[in-house]
Design a protein that fits this description.
globular, single chain, six-stranded mixed sheet, binds adenosine-5'-diphosphate, alpha/beta
Length: 227
Amino acid sequence: MADVKLTNVKKIYSNNVEVLRDINLDIKQGEFIVFVGPSGCGKSTLLRMISGLEEISAGTLEIDGVVVNDVPPALRGIAMVFQSYALYPHMTVYDNMAFSLQIAKTSKADIDQQVRKAADMLQLTPYLDRLPKALSGGQRQRVAIGRAIVRRPKVFLFDEPLSNLDAALRVATRMEIANLKDSMPDSTMIYVTHDQVEAMTLADRIVLLSGGDIEQVGSPLELYEHP
Ligand code: ADP
Ligand code: ADP
């Protein structure tokens, strides 16, 4: 539940390549923002900077009006869903979702409630006792989403979460994410993809990145019907 504001944000990697030049964007609480653009334009870099996994070279990142450039990832109230699910292979679905709450010393009863609620939302209840290897790719990605949900983050980040799935699962999982958006209307969601259909179906606003800058910002209608 948070506003995210980028002001004059820049990224220069150690090899002196300027990947992002001057990014200015005001993301409102509850918005679903989709970053699109060609491969290599800096979408993942931008997401990793918001999550704190990558340093911001210049400019400021604010979450709810607080500059968080130097706030460690775990304290930013952000959860990230990656392209590769990064589930713990030796843990059940339940334990994969419960783990970060166990680390945070959440009570057993609260953990159980959170995990079961997320599992219900993502239709994972029948699979709670399974290991990741006994799940389809789409189910695994739903577990990764569930693991993010139980942390009750203020901001969700998605880095091409559907790109490892085959076409049918991609459609189904896209619908799950659309449902997630509907059931958590106060959560801010920032999503990276190179898939135009994903952008059109999920976004409140699409941000088109190109050559290190924001080229266009607008609703799906504005960008794709009346470009
Ligand atoms: P996208 O997600 O849009 O495909 P990325 O953010 O992954 O783009 O990468 C943007 C550019 O930054 C690419 O040219 C890539 O090669 C470069 N890049 C990414 N990570 C690093 C790094 N750790 N060091 C140097 N260059 C990098
Ligand atoms: P913590 O330090 O709170 O135990 P984790 O061990 O869960 O955090 O993850 C380490 C870091 O990686 C965190 O700071 C978090 O930002 C990020 N991270 C890794 N996986 C996720 C995920 N599924 N959702 C949110 N953040 C994650």
